[in-house]
Design goal:
29% helix, 9-stranded mixed β-sheet, 9 strands, alpha+beta
């Protein structure tokens, strides 16, 4: 448990949480005092069940949480790994060899189009974050689909429904038929999710695939507009984040429920 305390403090910081907020999200188990002690020192015998709950919440392997310095880059991690003979990290890495956090900020479309050009003005410290195992840069973000303009009929097109989460990578040069997030008007911060069409002459147009906009003409990329990033993953939630928080009961036993 060499790095448990430091890793716990690091994960709290990168997720914009403190021990009280984490305890609230976990339904009070572990309690806030228990978590606060862990932040300062792991103590002599921290309960393995508490460590497992924390690891599950942050989506980090329990062995990594206890024994790997999660804040270090891949070269440093590999050096330490060789010394203590631990398994490889499960964090997403790119060709640069740099280890990235597994979570990225979840933004509304208005924030997303502003995030690229005016990143310092978008508050992401206390916002929700989304996990991804896809390779991504430090600028990657997630955006919640705000309408059904990309909800295609049947399987002829990639379909995106309102409320689904899109993982967006700004560092990928967009290609023909990529799904992209576009800032149509940087002055007013108007965003759109659409499929990119590039003709043989290099002209870029946008096409929405939803049933409700079927037959819509291709939209020319307006002057001054720019592509914020390419959608690399689509995540689907069946229950909202806040609803899950409300409904989780740690005392509930699914095995006993089937016997009633």
């Amino acid at each position: 448990m060499k790095y448990l305390s430091d890793n716990y403090a690091y994960l709290l910081r990168t997720h914009g949480l403190n021990s009280r907020q984490l305890s609230d999200r976990l339904g009070g188990k572990p309690s806030q005092p228990t978590l606060s002690r862990l932040e300062k020192t792991p103590g002599k015998n921290p309960r393995l069940e508490n460590i497992r709950i924390i690891a599950d919440f942050f989506e980090v392997p329990i062995e990594d949480l206890m024994n790997k310095p999660l804040w270090m880059d891949s070269a440093q991690t590999q050096e330490i790994t060789q010394k203590v003979q631990e398994p490889k990290t499960s964090y997403t890495s790119t060709s640069t060899g740099k280890i990235h956090k597994k979570t990225i900020p979840l933004l509304e479309i208005e924030q997303a189009v502003k995030y690229i050009s005016q990143r310092s003005q978008v508050d992401i410290k206390n916002g929700e974050r989304v996990a991804t195992t896809m390779p991504h840069s430090d600028l990657a973000f997630a955006v919640r689909m705000f309408d059904n303009s990309m909800k295609a009929e049947e399987n002829t097109e990639e379909s995106i429904s309102k409320g689904e989460i899109l993982i967006v990578e700004p560092k990928i040069p967009p290609r023909h038929e990529d799904i992209v997030v576009v800032n149509l008007n940087p002055e007013k911060q108007i965003g759109m999710v659409a499929k990119l069409e590039i003709d043989p002459f290099g002209k870029r147009r946008l096409r929405r695939t939803g049933i409700n906009v079927a037959g819509e003409n291709l939209i020319d990329l307006p002057e001054g507009a720019f592509i914020c990033g390419v959608v690399i993953e689509i995540k689907r939630r069946t229950i909202s984040f806040s609803e899950v928080e409300k409904r989780i009961k740690n005392e509930y036993n699914p095995i006993e429920s089937t016997q009633k």
